[in-house]
Amino acid sequence: MSIDNTAVEVRNLVKKFGNFTAVDDVSFTVRRGEIFGFLGPNGAGKSTTIRMLCGLLGPSSGSGRVGGFDIVQESEKIKENIGYMSQRFSLYDDLTVGENLDLYADIYNVPYERLVERKNEVLALTRLSDRTCSRTSELPLGLKQRLALGCAVIHEPPFLFLDEPTSGVDPISRRGFWDLIYQMAAKGTTIFVTTHVMDEAEHCDRLAMIYRGKLIALGSPTKMKEEHAHGVLLEIETEPLMDALALLEKEPSIRELAVFGATLHALVSDETEAKIAVQRILANQGASITRIVPTLEDVFVSLIEHADRPESVQEG
Question: Is 307 in the same domain as 272?
Answer without folding.
Answer: yes
